[in-house]
Design a protein that fits this description.
The chain is an alpha/beta fold. Helices cover about 30% and strands about 15% of the residues. α3 packs parallel to α4.
Length: about 290
């Protein structure tokens, strides 16, 4: 998500991030089908519950990935989408970091297709926050059913044309709608009129000054009606990223997704990826079972 913040100090920091994003390099670092990084990484320790805990991760910074040149990517998420229905996504960093595929987006898309591809989301209102090019929302629209109203993929104005391009690229006009939603500001009237049942958020934790804005928007969304669930996936890159999770636990009910038998969870751990279900504080959700 490309941030637009009026505070001049924050804006300077945001501009630094944008400059990093628009530094061109031809190295491709994401394996499209697995979502894993292809750069060489040190061997990981044997997985354990402690290893998976975000608070147990070393304080060393996780390196930011290398940025891609503009282009179109295709993926079936390791067969989770039929070959004839592959997702096509234009990646373009011209207007911000959100224009590229990121690990948490691939992970959340795979998760939704794997556990919700059987149609249990049919009839539910779906909204993606900080969608960038729309990866997760488009994957859900292709592989998890059909909805009325359409799936909303949202981000700031800088990403709007890219979201619309990717909707058309996948022939999902009328099934997916791009929308501008700025964190910390009033929700769009369409969202208020059609509150989401499921919210998707991937790689939205990367810029500390935006944490309060994101939490305000989550609070506003979860207040629209009872029973809303946020599927929230992020990759720890900086020490400050854990502060978001700590603040979220104080404000919302946060449940770790998956259990020790989930064969993908050790992969998440090795890559510094974490996935949670977030609901309103008043909503009592079990912390002992597997959250699907």
């Amino acid at each position: 998500m490309s941030l637009k913040i009026d505070n001049p100090i924050i804006s300077m920091a945001e501009e630094d991030i944008k400059n990093q994003c628009t530094t061109t390099t031809t190295t491709t670092i994401l394996s499209v089908d697995s979502g894993s990084e292809t750069q060489t990484t040190p061997a990981s320790p044997v997985f354990s519950e402690v290893d998976f805990s975000p608070l147990a991760i070393a304080e060393d910074l996780t390196p930011l990935p290398t940025y891609k040149e503009a282009g179109t990517t295709e993926t079936d998420f390791d067969g989770l989408l039929p070959a004839e229905r592959k997702l096509r996504l234009r990646e373009d960093l011209a207007n911000g970091c959100g224009g590229q595929l990121w690990p948490a987006g691939m992970t959340l898309a795979r998760y939704m297709l794997r556990y919700h591809g059987g149609g249990d989301l049919k009839g539910k209102n779906i909204l993606e926050l900080g969608a960038g090019g729309g990866l997760v929302g488009l994957a859900v629209a292709k592989g998890c059913g059909e909805w009325e109203p359409p799936v909303y993929i949202t981000d700031q104005e800088e990403m709007f044309s890219l979201m619309k391009h990717n909707i058309k690229l996948n022939g999902l006009e009328g099934k997916v709608e791009a929308m501008i939603l700025n964190w910390g500001e009033s929700l769009p009237s369409k969202v208020i009129a059609n509150p989401p049942d499921v919210i998707l958020a991937a790689d939205c934790v990367y810029f500390e000054p935006a944490f309060p804005l994101l939490q305000t928007t989550l609070q506003d969304l979860l207040s629209l009606k009872e029973g809303i669930v946020v599927y929230f996936c992020f990759k720890k890159r900086r020490r400050a990223d854990m502060q978001f999770l700590k603040a979220a636990r104080r404000r919302f009910h946060v449940v770790e997704i998956g259990d020790e038998d989930d064969d993908e969870r050790p992969v998440w751990s090795r890559q510094g990826l974490f996935m949670f279900a977030i609901t309103a504080k008043e909503k009592k959700t079990t912390t002992t079972g597997v959250y699907r």
